[in-house]
DNA sequence: TTTCCGAGTGTTTGCGATAACACTGCCGCT
DNA sequence: AGCGGCAGTGTTATCGCAAACACTCGGAAA
């Protein structure tokens, strides 16, 4: 910086100003400095800057499995939004969502002095972890449940599930079976709640939900059993991979979809439109969730207080896996 | 740090030593310092440390679409490996893989003084970008093509494609059609190369490859056309989503898989085993690639020179979408 | 006994930037 | 003419840490 200042014939302070508050420097001086910066290929030293300002311009994201469609898309959305606000994103992925591992991940990020952290933790065991966070660090949760002591951005799972269920009921099905996600997952219980309340609202019988583990395999296994029950004409599966397994199991057992059984999934993964038949499913706008989470975090960093929940509405995408009951 | 030193009755320098080179401090002194660190909840200041050491302990990853299975898994592998080496990972995602956008992404990371960068750029247009990188920054490329001026870690696409093709030929198919990825993708051309050379080795006719765009949709569209050609009994699709589209198109047209047409995919996404029929495909170990890339980068950071290529062998996973020709 | 060595610890300095404050002219007001 | 104010710039102090070098002291070697 000293060199740049020398070349431009000004003091180091002025160089700093040109970079951080250009309007405070007379245009011609500014131009000289900028030219010097160019010529010397000067780049401000990040460490020195954040040492003195106390901020780093880096945000952290803690997540469990960034390989899954949901977390990956959310992360992507966060990164995109962060870029627009001139923040960089660092990641800490976890093996499990325990209180301990969350604390570890946050700690790793914090030791690199991130300005704030977004935790993607759609699991109930994470809530505990969220309660024991350092309170001097701005934190936002994505997809978290009720009663979490930090701001939350999430898709309204219950609403999406209710839409899916009502869609099936509107097609004349007497009730809707549910292939749920594993217990303890916030998303799973939200979807169960929405499904159940939609059935209740119509006075329908509420079957016991079948519990899967998000995998296509679990959908397949449940599907094999369900195929033998002629009562089952409509199934709401809690995600698309399970729907895929379900589709295959039903087909193998000679059931036709949607003629014999209608199926609705959840997520709208890019392939869902090319399942056979194309899957009716609930689209989650993960990018939007990521953006909202980032906004909440920036607010927190900016000193805004309060526990906020930002809910994003999902959207039912009707394709060909659902049809009028016959 | 001063406070910790005071509490432990030592100088600040000793505290620093306890943290960075514990063996140079007498055990009892060390214990006193550690106790003081505990008591005061002291955490070293990252900015100050990297200001004086010149290193940040942060690596950057530049990638285009971290939502896709391949890049997402690679990123995950990199992060896991980085964690083991006490590095943190920052990400910069790109809209497109042009020379300009790559330069921008690298610049964003560099301005936060990352110690090195891994670029996930399976596109030929990226090669140009890789050629114009600042040479004072350690860079490693994942999935890059030949002639790239930086170390590369990648799956051996040609080898995987050849395996897939030989598998189909060994089942008695006279030749194998190929549904390829889009031109300009390194992976796509590698797979074409492997497929072609396997056919050549057996003296088979080499059909013109059909060019898709990785999406299930493009697989579906090509599939609809292919379904009418009775000559086509074996298809090697360049990824799993295209295989999915292909499967559906063939089924819709009344073709049976694998009885009438055998199909092999590429990737082994988690759902592949639950396609209908379960997909024979080539598994890429992205985690391994990520780990190798990280190792290369650490070598570079450590001062090791030379253009290295680390190839990871893919593996053929035989399921039920392939059968003896009838 | 003296000398030397080295393990363990302290002191000083500087990393590169910004914040806070101080200075310099010039302008317009009284 | 004299003063205040303000835009533009410079000076100084400081952020928290580690590198380099200096010091101390006890034990081994001469």
UniProtKB/TrEMBL annotation, chains A, B:
Residues 1-53 form the HTH lacI-type domain. SMART domains: HTH_LACI. One of its GO terms (molecular function) is DNA-binding transcription factor activity. It holds the Pfam family LacI. Keywords: DNA-binding, Transcription, Transcription regulation. This is LacI family transcriptional regulator. It comes from Acrocarpospora corrugata.
């Amino acid at each position: 910086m000293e060199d740049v200042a020398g070349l431009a014939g000004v003091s180091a302070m002025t160089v700093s100003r040109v970079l951080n508050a250009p309007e405070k420097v007379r245009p011609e001086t500014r131009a000289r400095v900028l030219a010097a910066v160019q010529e010397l290929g000067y780049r401000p030293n990040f460490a020195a800057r954040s040492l003195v300002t106390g901020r780093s311009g880096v945000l952290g994201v803690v997540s469990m499995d960034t390989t899954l469609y949901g977390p990956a898309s959310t992360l992507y959305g966060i990164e995109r939004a962060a870029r627009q606000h001139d923040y960089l994103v660092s990641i800490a992925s976890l093996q499990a969502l325990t209180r301990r591992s969350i604390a570890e991940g946050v700690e790793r990020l914090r030791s690199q002095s991130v300005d704030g952290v977004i935790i993607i933790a759609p699991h109930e065991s994470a809530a505990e972890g969220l309660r024991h966070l350092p309170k001097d660090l701005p934190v936002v949760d994505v997809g978290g449940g009720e009663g979490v002591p930090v701001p939350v951005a999430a898709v309204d799972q219950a609403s999406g599930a209710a839409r899916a269920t009502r869609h099936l009921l509107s097609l004349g099905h007497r009730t809707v079976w549910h292939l749920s996600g594993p217990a303890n997952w916030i998303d799973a219980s939200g979807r169960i709640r929405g499904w159940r309340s939609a059935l209740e609202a119509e006075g329908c019988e509420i079957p016991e939900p079948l519990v899967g583990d998000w995998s296509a395999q679990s959908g397949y296994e449940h599907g094999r059993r369900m195929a033998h029950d002629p009562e089952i004409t409509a199934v709401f599966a809690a995600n698309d991979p399970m729907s895929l397994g379900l589709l295959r199991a039903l087909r193998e057992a000679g059931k036709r979809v949607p003629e014999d059984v209608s199926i609705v999934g959840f997520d709208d993964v890019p392939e869902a439109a090319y399942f056979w038949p194309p899957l009716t499913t609930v689209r989650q706008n993960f990018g939007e969730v990521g953006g909202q989470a980032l906004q909440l975090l920036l607010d927190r960093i900016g000193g805004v207080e309060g526990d906020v929940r930002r809910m994003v509405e999902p959207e039912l995408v009707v394709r060909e896996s659902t049809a009028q009951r016959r």
